[in-house]
């Protein structure tokens, strides 16, 4: 099918900048909700317009349009919490993203990531308005000093969110020379944390010493349904696949792992009940329970008809 884009120099960022200027001038607190119908829509544009203005983006394919749109309206007409802010009692918490917190709607998740320098304890306070009254919720906060193997994906998640925030700064600064400084910061974060950015392309490279560099599995940037990262990569005994599902979906994600001859060695499955973040682990054994040999393997992740592929590296224990 053809892919329709705006005309008259209507690039994604030009349109977003124009909308931002208009809302800032006439109605700063405007909420924008976007609907994309069919496959030939600019998902990046519609998503950014919604998320930057406290709204939601919904994409429809061959669904019952009337029912889906009605359900979407029921979701947005009564937000659970608006004008949201977070406050941390621990002074070591920093670089929290997203900087602009979205409204919270029934059945939706609010994901916030940040960093801390020293272990501490205290609380995090979520504040907002539920249509009429101001509301405040306090949750215990424990910043551990222990390394938790299963939480390693959070580092990449934080890096991705920071890059998203910096990209907003980058486009706002263009064509000023300060934009180049922001661009370099994005590149540095991308290379440091091994996450893909608009200015980098990470791939599996073998240096002269025969060692394979650490890579990320997220190779297909056109996927609207999900992204997937693998860590550690290369791995020796266990690898985790961190999956972010970007849309409401109730389906199984199937991760197929092939050797370099194209033979299927393992299939992993996990049910995705809603949008959000999931982790699938693989212990490096094939379907018969035998440890796979060292080398490169192709990873194929499939959900709801969408397909992502990438390379992982198995090394000796």
Explained architecture:
The protein is an alpha+beta fold. The protein has five helices and 14 strands. The protein has helices at 12-26, 43-51, 65-77, 153-173, 178-193, and strands at residues 34-37, 57-60, 82-88, 93-97, 113-116, 120-130, 133-143, 226-231, 239-245, 251-258, 264-272, 276-282, 295-303, 306-314. β10 and β11 form a beta hairpin. α1 (12-26) packs parallel to α2 and α4 (153-173) packs antiparallel against α5 (178-193). It is globular, with a radius of gyration of 21 Å.
Features:
317 residues, four-stranded antiparallel sheet, three-stranded antiparallel sheet, 5 helices, globular
How is this structure best summarized?
This protein is α+β, with helices and mostly antiparallel strands. It is built from 5 helices and 14 strands.
Which percent range describes the beta-strand content? 25-35%
What is the radius of gyration computed over CA atoms, rounded to a whole number of angstroms?
21 Å
In the sheet with the most strands, the strands line up as 11-10-13-14
Shape: globular
- Please mark out the parts with pLDDT under 50 across 5 or more consecutive residues, or reply none: 202-216, 218-222
**Total helical segments:** 5
């Amino acid at each position: 099918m053809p892919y329709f884009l705006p005309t008259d120099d209507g690039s994604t960022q030009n349109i977003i900048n124009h909308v931002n200027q208009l809302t800032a001038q006439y109605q700063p607190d405007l909420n924008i909700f976007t609907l994309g119908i069919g496959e030939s829509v600019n998902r990046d544009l519609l998503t950014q317009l919604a998320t930057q203005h406290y709204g939601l983006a919904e994409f429809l394919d061959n669904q019952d349009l009337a029912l889906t749109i009605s359900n979407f309206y029921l979701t947005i007409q009564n937000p659970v919490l608006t004008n949201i802010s977070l406050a941390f009692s621990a002074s070591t918490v920093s670089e929290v993203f997203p900087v602009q917190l979205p409204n919270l709607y029934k059945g939706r998740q609010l994901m916030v990531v940040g960093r801390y320098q020293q272990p501490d304890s205290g609380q995090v306070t979520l504040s907002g308005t539920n249509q009429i009254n101001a509301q405040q919720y306090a949750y215990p906060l424990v910043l551990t000093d222990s390394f938790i193997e299963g939480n390693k994906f959070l580092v990449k998640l934080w890096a991705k969110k920071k890059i998203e925030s910096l990209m907003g700064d980058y486009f706002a600064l263009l064509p000023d020379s300060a934009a180049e400084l922001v661009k370099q910061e994005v590149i540095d974060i991308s290379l440091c944390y091994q996450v893909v950015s608009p200015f980098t392309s990470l791939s599996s490279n073998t240096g002269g010493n025969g060692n394979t560099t650490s890579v990320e599995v997220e190779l297909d940037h056109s996927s609207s349904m999900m992204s997937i990262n693998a860590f550690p990569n290369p791995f020796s005994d266990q690898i985790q696949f961190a999956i972010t599902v970007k849309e409401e979906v109730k389906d199984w994600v199937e991760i197929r792992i092939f050797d370099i001859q194209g033979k299927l060695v393992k299939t992993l499955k996990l049910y995705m009940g809603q949008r959000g973040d999931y982790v699938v682990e693989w212990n490096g054994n094939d379907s018969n329970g035998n440890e796979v040999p060292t080398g490169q393997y192709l990873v194929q992740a499939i959900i709801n008809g969408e397909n992502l592929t990438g390379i992982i590296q198995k090394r000796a224990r």
